[in-house]
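Input (structure):
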């Protein structure tokens, strides 16, 4: 495993009561997390809580995030930089975020990507997956080594569940099948999470 940084270890210890107690974070399938090599954590996105909860749930694997440049103001910037947030320039557009993701993966790091491309405020369980994650995963710079970890996060403060599926290896999956395969894996995880919470029919976000 690429060594977890001292700051990540200390942060996990200090925030453990908050994430486990107040937020009630629990994990399913933690054994599926690869602890070495470039990794894309591909998760659904419902809440502003999602990035920090996913970062906590993935421990001891250290997670990196991409955030819009405007967030890196004198007050917030130093804090989010400390916790592995990397600025994306608006002028660079989508291509800027894609290239930054490749740079991080080439360093053997784990990055968080929301394949829906935006926060899902609809009643649908999952928005259509955008092709950005496919472009990254199948780029020749990382394709032979990168793994994509299907992930599902469900809940609210006091009861968050994060489920990790079996990693997908783009090198072994035809590109034209990738997004459908990823979507199927994410929705399968959703079913497992809802069963874990004792919900029937997926009523919270629609069947």
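Output (sequence):
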């Amino acid at each position: 495993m690429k060594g977890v940084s001292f700051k990540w270890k200390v942060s996990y210890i200090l925030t453990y009561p908050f994430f486990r107690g107040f937020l009630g974070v629990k994990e399913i399938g933690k054994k599926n997390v690869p602890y070495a090599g470039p990794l894309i954590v591909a998760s659904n996105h419902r809440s502003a809580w999602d990035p920090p909860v996913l970062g906590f749930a993935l421990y001891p694997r250290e997670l990196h995030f991409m955030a819009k440049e405007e967030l890196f103001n004198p007050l917030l910037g130093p804090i989010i930089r400390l916790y592995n947030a990397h600025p994306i320039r608006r002028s660079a557009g989508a291509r800027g975020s894609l290239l930054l993701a490749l740079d991080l993966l080439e360093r053997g790091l784990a990055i968080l990507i929301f394949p829906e491309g935006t926060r899902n405020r609809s009643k649908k369980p999952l928005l259509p997956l955008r092709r950005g994650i496919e472009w990254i995963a199948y780029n020749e710079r990382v394709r032979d080594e990168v793994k994509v970890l299907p992930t599902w996060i469900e809940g609210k403060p006091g009861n968050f569940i994060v489920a990790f599926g079996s990693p997908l290896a783009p090198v072994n999956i035809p590109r034209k099948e990738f997004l459908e395969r990823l979507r199927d894996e994410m929705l399968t995880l959703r079913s497992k999470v809802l069963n874990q919470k004792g919900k029937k029919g997926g009523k919270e976000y629609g069947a």
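Notes: Strands lie at 26-28, 39-43, 63-68, 85-88, 110-113, 147-156, 159-164. Residues 85 and 177 are 31 Å apart (CA to CA).
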